[in-house]
# Entry
Amino acid sequence: MKLLVVLGLVVVVSAAPQAQRQAPSANPQEVQILRFDTENDGLGTYRFALEQSDGTKKEEQGELKNAGTDDEAISVRGSYTWVGPDGVTYTVTYVADDKGYQPTIEQGPGGAIPPGVVASLIG
# Structure
């Protein structure tokens, strides 16, 4: 009996209309990379920066702390910026180390960060 129920559900699901994919818009925004810098010593220290024509930016640097010990860890500092659909520029600056992920959120004039976004970033 259970087998018949499962088979019936499979038939119903496979017969259901499939979602139609939307075609890409006729004029997609072409985003260009304006800057990309990267350095990596291969020993745990690195740095990179990326900037795009749509206002998106990302910068990060990492450093290996206490190399060769039981307390060895990487410490990362960075930020990322984007322009939201509301036209407001948002920036998250962060530190990620042995104390966890610690973001600071900033917004340009006219923006308001929804409480759910803040909660998801802070954890």
Q: What stands out?
A: The longest strand covers residues 73-83. The longest helix spans residues 2-15. The chain is about 20% helix and 40% strand. The radius of gyration is 23 Å.
